[in-house]
């Protein structure tokens, strides 16, 4: 393992560093994941492991976030559900309907409008 990778691992496995980023600097686990190039679910697991109180970050899952995940990043409802930490992709489908983000087949995603 090279030095850069070991430094990244050390950062998110360091309880004080993680607490500082998440609580003191008020970053989301998604922001922390991007900062050190690991998935936000990895950060979330380490927050839980260290018993760092998880903030209600569901408010970040607004229309813009959902549109970005589904349309721009071409993520499936199942993958979005994992990111949003909801139990079912049907919740994501409901959010897509609520925010009027047009649902189309995956094969058509790059060729059609979403609104």
Structure overview:
With 115 residues, the protein is an all-alpha fold. It has 2 domains: 3-49; 58-108. 58% of the residues lie in helices and 0% in strands. It has helices spanning 3-13, 15-24, 29-36, 40-49, 63-72, 77-84, 89-98. It is elongated.
Summarize the structure.
This protein has 115 residues and is mainly α. The protein contains seven helices and no strands.
From the structure above, extract its key features.
115 residues, mainly alpha, 7 helices
Give the DSSP E fraction (strand runs of 2 or more residues): under 5%
Q: How many helices?
A: 7
Shape: elongated
Mean pLDDT across all amino acids:
81
Q: Measured on Cα atoms, how large is the radius of gyration?
A: 16 Å
In which range does the helix fraction lie? 55-70%
């Amino acid at each position: 393992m090279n030095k850069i990778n070991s430094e990244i691992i050390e950062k998110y496995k360091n309880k004080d560093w993680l607490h500082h980023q998440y609580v003191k600097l008020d970053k989301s686990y998604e922001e922390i994941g991007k900062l050190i190039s690991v998935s936000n679910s990895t950060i979330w697991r380490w927050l839980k492991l260290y018993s760092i109180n998880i903030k209600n970050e569901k408010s970040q899952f607004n229309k813009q976030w959902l549109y970005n995940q589904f349309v721009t990043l071409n993520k499936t409802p199942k993958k979005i559900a994992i990111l949003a930490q909801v139990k079912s992709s049907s919740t994501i489908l409901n959010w897509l309907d609520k925010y009027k983000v047009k649902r189309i087949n995956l094969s058509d995603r790059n060729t059609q409008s979403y609104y």
